[in-house]
Amino acid sequence: MMRTPDYTARDFTVSLPAADYMARFRDAERCAASCRACTNYGRSWACPPFDFDMEEYLAGYATALLIATKITPRHSGLPFAEAGRLLRPERVRHERRLLDLEQRYGGRAFAYVGTCLHCPVGSCTRPQGLPCRHPERVRPSLEACGFDLCRTTEELLGIPLQWSRDGRMPEYLTLVSGFFHNAETIEWKE
Ligand code: SF4
Fold it and tell me: What is the per-residue pLDDT across 72-100, written as a single tens digit (0 to 9) for each?
């Protein structure tokens, strides 16, 4: 459990065979339709459509490690517009840890969905047709790869996702990422 002046954050993890996770929690068509309806579609290199074959991208890993961080604001009823400020340090922490795991174990990291962290907002090169500035840091989200995160967090981690109501933050925010790998065991340390 981490405590900051603005929120507390607690990590939850689960591991299961990657093939099971794909068979039970992946609906590529439904997720692709949601992505196409998003304003970021085709406007960030972190978002679909991707220039790689998704089935090949996901293949060849034995285990799926899934990580959810439950972020509970210290003060209730904050404007939902504040959510990004609370999420950002936890996203940075997840992404650093995931890239470190890739280096050490050679697996495949999946970042949290949302605006890419690695360039100033609104400055992604994709709308200009230019290459990504930091491809070594950018990873797709589990949603963008077709996974159902509502069911993932609720059924595998016991955390029902909560949504904003009347422009206010819910009781907690949930940040989800993943790591597919072939290592014997991987410990995710808070
Ligand atoms: S690192 Fe920059 S160029 Fe690459 S996807 Fe992110 S915002 Fe776009």
Answer: 999 998 999 999 999 999 999 999 999 99
Q: Is the CB of 133 under 6 A from ligand 1?
A: yes
Question: How far is C-alpha 81 from the geometric centre of its chain's CA atoms?
Answer: 19
Domain boundaries, the chain: 2-181
Query: Residue 37 class from Cβ within 10 Å (0-12 exposed, 13-18 middle, 19+ buried)?
Result: exposed
Q: What is the pLDDT of residues 24-60, one digit of tens each?
A: 999 999 999 999 999 889 999 999 999 999 999 999 9
Please tell me if the CB atom of residue 44 comes closer than 6 angstroms to any atom of ligand 1: yes
Question: Cα separation of 80 and 29, whole Å?
Answer: 29
Instruction: Using a cut of 0.85, tell me whether the model's pTM lies above it.
Output: yes
Nearest CA owner, ligand 1 atom 6: 116
Which residue owns the Cα nearest ligand 1 atom 4?
A: 132
Q: Under 8 Å CB-to-CB from 53, ≥6 apart: which residues?
A: none
Q: Which of 111, 99, 174 is nearest to 144 (CA)?
A: 111
Instruction: Identify which of 124, 130, 139, 141 to mutate to test ligand 1's pocket (most ligand atoms within 8 A of the CB).
Output: 124
Question: Between vectors from CA 98 to CA 181 and to CA 23, what angle results, nearest 5°?
Answer: 40
Residue 67: phi and psi, rounded to 5, are -125, 130
Q: Are 112 and 177 in contact (CB under 8 A)?
A: yes
